[in-house]
C-alpha cells in the first residue's frame, strides 16, 4: 500500500507526502483498462452532443481529453458522473457493463468529478464540503471531530495541511477551493478522477502543485481524465490523448508527449470531411469600407486591434478559444464597452450600446445560440423577427401576419426544416436553429453581419447551406465578419483572413495567400508551442 | 481515425440570396413541411399558441367544478336564476380590485421579475388621493393623484431594479415596507373618508345592471391582453423575460423595458386604489393587505412562469375569478376564512402540479415529433 519508492514521478514530489495519499484500492492493477466507452451517443433536443464517442482509460494513467468548446467534453463528463444517461453505446467500468443512474451511483462506483466551476457550497466549511453527502454520522448527528480529523489528513497529503478544516470555503482563494474539491474526490476513495480544466483558475506555481498531486494519485493506480486547452500541460502531465470534435472521437490514445502539436490541433479543429465552399467572386467586387476598427482594447481580452470590413467582403478571424476573438466581436457590436479605440460604421463613430450598433446596420449571430440568441419556447417567426418586429408595427401594434409572412419567406430562402414558422424553436435541430439566428438579420437593413462560430454544432448538410447563405449575402453587398475555430472554414469562406493569438492580430492576408498549416502555426505559436515538438 | 462520412455535395449554386427575391425551389421545400406557406392568414383575435389555451381550458374546468360544488351544497339558491346572476356579479366585483393588480403583476412576472409592493402601492395611492388637500381638487384630482403615485412608485422600483441592479425581490420588498410606512405617516394612521360622491359612486352604481367595477376590470384585462399579445411592448416583455441576453443582443433596451414594466404595475395599483377607495368610501394605510400574494398566486395558477417569458392575461383573470369563487362558495355555506385559506393553498399547489405535468407531456411530445420531422 506504500508508494513505490523508486517511482520517478513521486520522487520529484519533494518531502511533503510522507504517507500514501490514499488507500489504493487493493484490486486495482496498474495498466488495466478501468473504463471503456464504445459508440456513446447522447442527444438533446436540437443537438447531438455526443455522436459516437470512444474512450479507453487505464488505471494509473493521466488520460487527456482535447476538444474545442462544444466538442462534447462537458456532456461526456456528465455522462460519466451520472448526471446524464447516454441514449446508446456501452459504458464498461472495471470490466463490466455499467450505467450510472445518478451522481451518487457514479461516486459509489468510484468515479469522482472535479468540475470547472467548482461545485462547492461556499458557506459550508472545508470539512463539510469534503464530506458533503456522505458525512460521518451517529444517529443523525454529524461527527464533526472525526470529519475534521480525516479532512486534515487528506489535506496534508495533498500538500495543503495549512488549510483549516473548519474554515469557510468562501474565504479560500481559487487554488484552495480546488484543493477542497480534490479532497472531496479522495474522501470517496475514487478510482477515476475527472478534472475539467483544473488549471484554468490556478496561477503558474499552483499548477506545479496540482501536477505533483496528480502524479501521486496515478502512482496509486488511480486513473485521471484531464481536460485542458493548454497543450503544454498535456505534454507535461498526460500519458495518452483522446481528441473529440463535434461529439465524436477523432483520434484516440495518441501518445501525449510525442504527437506533433499540428496533428492534435488539426484533429481538434480541422475538417473531418471535405466541405464545399461557394466560389469567391472573380473580380474584386467589394465596395467601400463599411466597418473600421482602430486600436480597440479591453485588458485581458484583446489589445490594440485594428481591422476593416468592406461592403460585400467576408473577413474571417482565425484563432483558438481564449484568443479574444469572441470578446472582440461583442465589443464591436457594442455589447461590451471598449477601454480604448474606436468603432466606425460608414465613417461615423458608433455610440456605445447594442441598440446603436443595430441602428447603424449591424447584426450578430452570437457564439452560444441557445443562451444568447434564441427564445427557445417561442415560435420560429418571433425569433426571426426578434430584432425587427418594431419595423412591422404600427403605432406600437405588432403585425403578426406580416411577421409570419416575412419569416416564412426567410424560412424558404434558408430552406428551414421543418418550414413551419409557428413551431417553437426548441424543436429544431442545431443547424436549423442557426439558420433562424442568421435569418433574423436578413430582414432588411443589415449592412454588416458578425458571425461567431456560425457552424458550431451544425450538421454537415446544413453547413454547406449556411456557407451558401453567407456568400450570397456578401454578393448582395453585406459585409461579413466571421469568427471560427475551424481554420479550413475561415480559409474557405473568407476573402481576407486575420489570425488572432492571445488578444492580438498577428497576421492579416488574403485568404489565398495562406494555407491551413501556416495559420495553425501562427495560431499555436508562442506559449502554446513552448516545449512542443512541432 | 475519423469517420467515413461521404463527401456531401453542396446544394446548387444560388448566390443571389435572400431579402428581395425568394428563389423558388419547390422540389426541395415541398418535402420539408406540409404546413409551409401557412404564413399570412391570421385572425386578429387568434391566441398565441395552443399551449396557453389548453391550460386555460383546465382552469375553466376547475371553475365549473366549483360551481357544481356550489350547486350541490346550496341547491335552493342555485335553482333561482336571479340569485345566480347576482352571485356571478358579486364574484366578479369581489375579483375586480385584485384582478386589476394581477394584470400588472402578470406583466412583471412574464418580464422576469416580481413585484411584492403592489398592496403597499395601492394603500399609498389610496391614502394619498384621500388627503384633505387632494380631495380639495375634486374627483379628477383624486384620480390623477392615485394614478400618478402608482406610476411614480412603480418607476422607483423599476429604476432600482434595472439601473441600480437590485434583485426585484429585494427592491420591491423594501418598497412594500417603505410605502406602507409612508401611507401610515401621511394618514396619521387614521381612516380618511372620501367625500367625493363621484369616487364613491364608482363602486355603488351599476350600468345596464352590471357594477362599474366589473367594467373597469374588463377594460383593464382587455387592455392588458391587447398590450401583451398585439403590441411591441408585449413582445419585448416576453423577449426580456424569456432570454434577456438574446433580447439585448437583438437591440432591445432591456433595462428601460424592465423599468417600464414596474411602472405599468404601479399604474395598475393606482387604478386599483381608486376602486378600493370607492368600495370602502375611505382609505387607510392597512388597506389592500397581502394583495401581492393574491396577485402572484392568481398569476401562477393562471399559468404564468415564475422564471419569466411565458404567461397569459386570460389565465391570470381566471386565477383571480377562481379565488373569488372559492371565497364566495365558503361565504354562502357559512364556512370560516381559515378553511377557505387552506383550500386556496391546496388549489395553488394542485394547479402548479397539473401544469408541470402538462408541460412535460407537451415537451415530450414535441421532442418525439422532432426526431421524425427535423433534418
TrEMBL record, chain B:
Keywords from the UniProt entry: Cell membrane, Membrane, Transmembrane, Transmembrane helix
Region Disordered, annotated ranges: 1-44
Transmembrane segments: 53-72, 84-110, 116-134, 141-160, 166-186, 207-228, 259-278, 313-332
Broad class of where this protein is predominantly found: membrane
Membrane topology note: Multi-pass membrane protein
A Pfam family annotated for this UniProt entry: BPD_transp_2
Biased segments, Low complexity type: 1-12
Subcellular location: Cell membrane
Protein name: ABC transporter permease
